What we know:
Layout: E1 3-8, H1 18-22, H2 26-29, H3 33-41, E2 45-47, E3 50-51, E4 63-68, E5 85-88, E6 92-97, H4 114-121, E7 145-151, H5 154-166, E8 170-178, E9 185-189, E10 193-194, E11 202-203, E12 213-222, E13 225-232, H6 239-246, E14 264-266, E15 272-274, E16 280-288, E17 295-299, H7 304-316
Parallel strand pairs: 7-16
Antiparallel strand pairs: 1-4, 2-3, 2-4, 5-6, 6-7, 8-13, 8-16, 9-12, 10-11, 12-13, 14-15, 16-17
Amino acid sequence: MSKELTIQIPPEALGKRIDLFLAQFRPALGLSRSRVQELMAEGLITVDGERVKASRKLQGRETIRIVIPDAKPLALRPARIRLNILFEDGDLVVLNKAPGMVVHPAPGNPDGTLVHALLHHCRDLSGIGGVERPGIVHRLDKDTSGVMVAVKTDNAHRSLAAQLKRRSVKKHYLAIVRGTVTRNAGTMEAPIGRHERHRKKMTVHAARGRAALTRFEVVERFSGYTLLSLQLMTGRTHQIRVHLAHHGHPIVGDPVYGGKQFDEMRSPDGEKMPVPRQMLHARRLEFRHPRTGALVGFEAPPPEDFERVLRFLRKNCCKR
């Protein structure tokens, strides 16, 4: 059954765009900016009963009505796909996502996604994310492995979305990068936005980039490569990949930001090893449980392809 919310617009909102006005409510509602736009396009956000666009200027004292429909899982065909479940209760599912798995349906990846697998596994997912993204409150790139959480209830979705907005969710990663990172630890800070010409690519040189901060620490050094531990302090698209490439240390195996030799490693002695995907792994996730408020944390070890690359480095590339 769909859920409805009514918001009375105060007089001081006169002249403000409705999308900017609603931005203050998005964390509590668990709605992303794109989801708000989708609801508007579907006529599910109205002002005094009229359909509106994101650019609609408010007059003050109007009434906004938001209808959030339940997810329609039957629009997607549940698929029996093996999931590595780390934790599950009535509110959420924490899993270790395999590399190569797309999180939700998108052009070019209509089937076989994590959403399809989740629908087969539990079938009671939050509908806030929309028909194609039931239960999804955050995501990992297709070729990034590791810990992520999906939600079963709208209350859990709103709680996790608010925590992500406050940046209180802690995300820790491991990455194998090119080059020797000389500093033992530090931060990378540069705004990130969409590339003007390559719309699937992000850049630190965007005209309207958003603030982004990544912390790093060296775990192990090799000849020409470094294993890093990283923590996302903000959550921009491709943030770790963009920051590392910007600082001259692209992730090994990254086809977008990794350069011409992204899919191959080479030792000082000329030994070569193909790299199957970008060597980025979400190793730990910490957040407040949406029902109990308790701080919880979940970890997942790197998968075999990541460990295989490390074994090659330890065998063929002398440590510095």
